[in-house]
Amino acid sequence: MFSGCKTQENIFKGKDKYSSKAPDEVGTLTYENNNDYNVLLLKNFKVKYASPDRQNTFYGTAKILRDSLMLLSLKAPMGIEIARVLLSKDSVKVINRNQNKAVFSDYNYLFNLLGFRLDFPVIESIFNGNFPEDYSFAGDNRKDSSNISEGLYSGIYYKEQNPEELKFEAWVIPDKFKLYYSRFYRKRNIKVVDIKYSDYEKIGGNYYPGEIDISHINQGDNETQIRMIFNNFEENSDKRINFTIPAKYEKIKLN
Predict the structure, then answer these.
(1) What is the C-alpha separation between 72 and 92, in angstroms, rounded?
(2) Sign (positive or negative) of CA dihedral 241, 247, 250, 255
(3) What does the buried/exposed string (b/e) look like for 215-236 if buried means 16 or more CB atoms within 10 Å of the residue's CB?
(4) What pTM, to 2 d.p., does this model score?
(5) Which of 165, 118, 168 is nearest to 138 (CA)?
(6) Model confidence over 67-105: pLDDT tens digits?
(7) Nearest of 39, 41, 81, 40 to residue 59 by alpha carbon
(8) Of the candidates 11, 26, 19, 33, which has an alpha carbon nearest to the alpha carbon of residue 155?
Protein backbone atom coordinates (compact mmCIF):
# COMPACT_ATOMS: atom_id res chain seq x y z
CA MET A 1 0.00 0.00 0.00
CA PHE A 2 1.39 3.40 -0.97
CA SER A 3 0.53 6.97 -0.10
CA GLY A 4 1.90 10.10 -1.69
CA CYS A 5 2.55 13.80 -1.40
CA LYS A 6 2.31 16.53 -4.03
CA THR A 7 5.41 18.25 -5.36
CA GLN A 8 5.73 21.57 -7.20
CA GLU A 9 7.99 21.66 -10.27
CA ASN A 10 8.25 22.91 -13.82
CA ILE A 11 6.26 20.18 -15.53
CA PHE A 12 7.35 21.25 -19.02
CA LYS A 13 11.08 21.00 -18.50
CA GLY A 14 12.70 18.75 -21.05
CA LYS A 15 10.25 19.58 -23.83
CA ASP A 16 13.03 20.57 -26.23
CA LYS A 17 14.74 17.23 -25.65
CA TYR A 18 11.72 15.40 -27.09
CA SER A 19 10.54 17.95 -29.67
CA SER A 20 11.85 15.87 -32.58
CA LYS A 21 9.70 12.85 -31.69
CA ALA A 22 6.77 12.10 -33.98
CA PRO A 23 3.27 12.20 -32.42
CA ASP A 24 2.83 8.43 -32.56
CA GLU A 25 6.15 7.99 -30.70
CA VAL A 26 4.94 10.38 -28.00
CA GLY A 27 1.67 8.47 -27.73
CA THR A 28 3.46 5.13 -27.48
CA LEU A 29 5.80 6.39 -24.75
CA THR A 30 2.84 7.79 -22.82
CA TYR A 31 0.86 4.56 -23.15
CA GLU A 32 3.87 2.53 -22.00
CA ASN A 33 4.13 4.84 -18.98
CA ASN A 34 0.55 4.24 -17.84
CA ASN A 35 0.08 3.77 -14.10
CA ASP A 36 0.33 0.10 -13.16
CA TYR A 37 -1.92 -0.93 -10.28
CA ASN A 38 -4.49 -3.54 -9.31
CA VAL A 39 -6.92 -1.37 -7.32
CA LEU A 40 -6.90 2.40 -6.97
CA LEU A 41 -8.82 4.25 -4.24
CA LEU A 42 -9.63 7.95 -4.55
CA LYS A 43 -10.86 9.18 -1.20
CA ASN A 44 -12.97 12.25 -0.47
CA PHE A 45 -12.35 14.18 -3.68
CA LYS A 46 -14.20 17.41 -4.41
CA VAL A 47 -16.35 18.06 -7.48
CA LYS A 48 -17.43 21.51 -8.66
CA TYR A 49 -20.09 21.49 -11.36
CA ALA A 50 -21.16 24.62 -13.27
CA SER A 51 -23.57 25.03 -16.17
CA PRO A 52 -25.67 27.99 -17.39
CA ASP A 53 -28.62 26.94 -15.22
CA ARG A 54 -27.03 25.53 -12.06
CA GLN A 55 -23.96 25.17 -9.90
CA ASN A 56 -23.24 22.41 -7.42
CA THR A 57 -20.45 21.24 -5.17
CA PHE A 58 -20.32 17.70 -3.90
CA TYR A 59 -17.81 15.11 -2.77
CA GLY A 60 -16.95 11.62 -3.84
CA THR A 61 -14.92 8.49 -3.41
CA ALA A 62 -13.96 6.07 -6.14
CA LYS A 63 -12.62 2.55 -6.34
CA ILE A 64 -11.13 1.43 -9.65
CA LEU A 65 -10.38 -2.18 -10.51
CA ARG A 66 -8.08 -1.61 -13.41
CA ASP A 67 -9.62 -2.18 -16.85
CA SER A 68 -12.78 -3.77 -15.45
CA LEU A 69 -14.88 -1.88 -12.85
CA MET A 70 -15.27 1.52 -11.26
CA LEU A 71 -17.39 2.24 -8.18
CA LEU A 72 -18.30 5.87 -7.44
CA SER A 73 -19.97 7.22 -4.33
CA LEU A 74 -21.23 10.80 -4.59
CA LYS A 75 -22.10 12.76 -1.46
CA ALA A 76 -23.66 16.07 -0.56
CA PRO A 77 -21.51 18.60 1.36
CA MET A 78 -22.95 17.29 4.66
CA GLY A 79 -21.58 13.83 3.86
CA ILE A 80 -24.88 12.15 2.96
CA GLU A 81 -24.59 9.82 -0.02
CA ILE A 82 -26.86 10.88 -2.90
CA ALA A 83 -25.84 8.29 -5.48
CA ARG A 84 -23.70 5.21 -5.98
CA VAL A 85 -22.55 4.31 -9.49
CA LEU A 86 -21.02 1.08 -10.78
CA LEU A 87 -19.38 1.22 -14.21
CA SER A 88 -18.17 -1.75 -16.25
CA LYS A 89 -17.02 -1.85 -19.85
CA ASP A 90 -20.57 -2.23 -21.15
CA SER A 91 -22.96 -1.27 -18.34
CA VAL A 92 -23.93 1.57 -16.02
CA LYS A 93 -25.73 0.88 -12.74
CA VAL A 94 -26.92 3.71 -10.52
CA ILE A 95 -28.41 3.73 -7.03
CA ASN A 96 -30.29 7.02 -6.59
CA ARG A 97 -30.66 7.60 -2.85
CA ASN A 98 -32.84 10.69 -3.25
CA GLN A 99 -35.45 8.91 -5.37
CA ASN A 100 -35.12 5.38 -3.91
CA LYS A 101 -34.43 3.99 -7.38
CA ALA A 102 -31.86 1.73 -9.02
CA VAL A 103 -31.19 2.17 -12.73
CA PHE A 104 -29.60 -0.48 -14.98
CA SER A 105 -28.44 0.82 -18.35
CA ASP A 106 -25.58 1.24 -20.82
CA TYR A 107 -23.50 4.32 -21.58
CA ASN A 108 -26.43 6.04 -23.27
CA TYR A 109 -27.58 6.80 -19.73
CA LEU A 110 -24.48 8.94 -19.06
CA PHE A 111 -24.81 10.54 -22.48
CA ASN A 112 -28.37 11.62 -21.69
CA LEU A 113 -27.29 12.85 -18.26
CA LEU A 114 -24.09 14.70 -19.21
CA GLY A 115 -24.74 15.62 -22.82
CA PHE A 116 -21.56 14.02 -24.17
CA ARG A 117 -20.55 10.45 -24.87
CA LEU A 118 -17.63 8.81 -23.07
CA ASP A 119 -16.87 5.10 -22.77
CA PHE A 120 -15.32 3.12 -19.91
CA PRO A 121 -11.65 3.39 -21.00
CA VAL A 122 -11.95 7.17 -21.28
CA ILE A 123 -13.75 7.60 -17.95
CA GLU A 124 -11.16 5.38 -16.28
CA SER A 125 -8.35 7.44 -17.84
CA ILE A 126 -9.90 10.66 -16.52
CA PHE A 127 -9.57 9.39 -12.96
CA ASN A 128 -6.24 7.56 -13.16
CA GLY A 129 -4.41 9.83 -15.61
CA ASN A 130 -3.59 6.99 -18.00
CA PHE A 131 -3.53 7.19 -21.78
CA PRO A 132 -6.89 5.66 -22.88
CA GLU A 133 -6.66 2.02 -23.88
CA ASP A 134 -8.33 0.32 -26.87
CA TYR A 135 -7.61 3.32 -29.13
CA SER A 136 -5.38 3.37 -32.24
CA PHE A 137 -3.24 6.13 -33.77
CA ALA A 138 -4.96 7.93 -36.66
CA GLY A 139 -2.48 10.69 -37.54
CA ASP A 140 -1.33 14.23 -36.88
CA ASN A 141 -4.32 16.57 -36.47
CA ARG A 142 -2.54 19.78 -35.42
CA LYS A 143 -3.39 21.66 -38.61
CA ASP A 144 -7.11 21.17 -37.86
CA SER A 145 -7.06 21.91 -34.13
CA SER A 146 -5.99 24.86 -32.03
CA ASN A 147 -2.48 24.29 -30.73
CA ILE A 148 -1.86 23.66 -27.06
CA SER A 149 1.56 25.28 -26.75
CA GLU A 150 2.56 23.46 -23.57
CA GLY A 151 3.28 19.77 -23.72
CA LEU A 152 4.22 17.30 -26.43
CA TYR A 153 1.63 16.47 -29.08
CA SER A 154 0.76 12.78 -29.34
CA GLY A 155 -1.62 12.75 -32.31
CA ILE A 156 -5.27 11.83 -32.74
CA TYR A 157 -6.68 8.39 -31.86
CA TYR A 158 -9.83 6.45 -32.69
CA LYS A 159 -11.57 3.34 -31.43
CA GLU A 160 -11.17 0.49 -33.90
CA GLN A 161 -14.60 -1.00 -33.22
CA ASN A 162 -16.35 2.29 -34.05
CA PRO A 163 -13.89 4.80 -35.56
CA GLU A 164 -16.46 7.54 -36.18
CA GLU A 165 -18.12 7.50 -32.73
CA LEU A 166 -15.38 8.96 -30.54
CA LYS A 167 -11.89 10.28 -31.24
CA PHE A 168 -9.37 12.09 -29.09
CA GLU A 169 -6.06 13.90 -29.36
CA ALA A 170 -3.67 14.57 -26.51
CA TRP A 171 -0.75 16.63 -25.30
CA VAL A 172 1.54 15.17 -22.65
CA ILE A 173 4.03 16.33 -20.01
CA PRO A 174 7.66 15.86 -21.11
CA ASP A 175 9.92 13.59 -19.06
CA LYS A 176 6.98 12.09 -17.14
CA PHE A 177 5.02 11.28 -20.31
CA LYS A 178 1.72 11.79 -18.50
CA LEU A 179 -1.42 13.41 -19.91
CA TYR A 180 -1.57 17.19 -19.74
CA TYR A 181 -4.48 17.97 -22.08
CA SER A 182 -6.87 15.84 -24.11
CA ARG A 183 -9.61 16.80 -26.53
CA PHE A 184 -12.46 14.53 -27.57
CA TYR A 185 -14.54 14.64 -30.74
CA ARG A 186 -17.70 12.97 -31.94
CA LYS A 187 -18.79 12.32 -35.52
CA ARG A 188 -17.62 14.80 -38.19
CA ASN A 189 -14.81 15.94 -35.86
CA ILE A 190 -17.08 18.16 -33.76
CA LYS A 191 -15.32 18.97 -30.50
CA VAL A 192 -17.11 17.55 -27.49
CA VAL A 193 -14.93 17.69 -24.39
CA ASP A 194 -11.64 19.26 -23.29
CA ILE A 195 -9.84 17.78 -20.28
CA LYS A 196 -6.84 19.29 -18.50
CA TYR A 197 -4.78 17.32 -15.97
CA SER A 198 -2.56 19.04 -13.40
CA ASP A 199 -0.96 18.84 -9.95
CA TYR A 200 0.28 15.28 -10.35
CA GLU A 201 0.99 13.31 -7.19
CA LYS A 202 3.58 10.55 -7.01
CA ILE A 203 2.58 7.29 -5.32
CA GLY A 204 5.23 4.61 -5.46
CA GLY A 205 6.35 4.63 -9.09
CA ASN A 206 3.08 6.07 -10.43
CA TYR A 207 1.81 9.62 -11.00
CA TYR A 208 -1.87 10.51 -10.54
CA PRO A 209 -3.56 13.85 -11.40
CA GLY A 210 -4.48 15.92 -8.35
CA GLU A 211 -6.76 18.23 -10.32
CA ILE A 212 -8.83 17.64 -13.44
CA ASP A 213 -10.79 20.28 -15.35
CA ILE A 214 -13.45 19.17 -17.83
CA SER A 215 -15.13 21.55 -20.27
CA HIS A 216 -18.03 20.68 -22.56
CA ILE A 217 -19.76 23.00 -25.04
CA ASN A 218 -23.06 21.71 -26.39
CA GLN A 219 -24.66 22.46 -29.75
CA GLY A 220 -26.27 25.56 -28.28
CA ASP A 221 -22.83 26.93 -27.29
CA ASN A 222 -23.65 26.47 -23.61
CA GLU A 223 -20.64 25.46 -21.56
CA THR A 224 -20.57 22.95 -18.73
CA GLN A 225 -17.51 22.86 -16.50
CA ILE A 226 -16.49 20.16 -14.03
CA ARG A 227 -13.50 20.49 -11.72
CA MET A 228 -12.36 17.52 -9.64
CA ILE A 229 -9.78 17.96 -6.88
CA PHE A 230 -8.06 14.90 -5.42
CA ASN A 231 -5.83 14.77 -2.35
CA ASN A 232 -5.93 11.18 -1.13
CA PHE A 233 -4.81 8.30 -3.36
CA GLU A 234 -4.21 4.73 -2.30
CA GLU A 235 -3.13 1.64 -4.21
CA ASN A 236 -4.07 -1.78 -2.84
CA SER A 237 -5.34 -5.22 -3.90
CA ASP A 238 -8.78 -5.33 -2.24
CA LYS A 239 -11.20 -6.05 -5.10
CA ARG A 240 -14.38 -6.19 -3.03
CA ILE A 241 -17.18 -4.00 -4.39
CA ASN A 242 -20.02 -2.76 -2.19
CA PHE A 243 -23.02 -2.18 -4.43
CA THR A 244 -26.05 -3.42 -2.54
CA ILE A 245 -29.49 -2.26 -3.68
CA PRO A 246 -32.07 -1.96 -0.88
CA ALA A 247 -35.03 -4.29 -1.42
CA LYS A 248 -37.54 -1.42 -1.25
CA TYR A 249 -35.94 0.50 -4.13
CA GLU A 250 -37.70 0.64 -7.49
CA LYS A 251 -35.59 -1.09 -10.16
CA ILE A 252 -35.56 0.40 -13.64
CA LYS A 253 -33.97 -1.23 -16.67
CA LEU A 254 -33.22 1.01 -19.64
CA ASN A 255 -32.16 0.07 -23.17
Answers:
(1) 11
(2) positive
(3) ebbeeeeeebebbbebbebbbe
(4) 0.85
(5) 168
(6) 999 999 999 988 899 999 999 999 999 999 999 999 999
(7) 81
(8) 26
**Residues 72/59, Cβ–Cβ less than 8 Å:** no
Question: Which pLDDT band holds residue 7 (cuts at 50, 70, 90)?
Answer: very low
Specify the length of the chain in residues: 255
Q: What is the dihedral of CA 109, 210, 178, 186, to 10 degrees?
A: 20
Alpha-carbon separation of residue 170 from 29, 58, 107, 248 (angstroms): 13, 28, 23, 45
Q: How many Å apart are CA 253 and CA 227, to the nearest integer?
A: 30
CA distance 74 to 186: 28
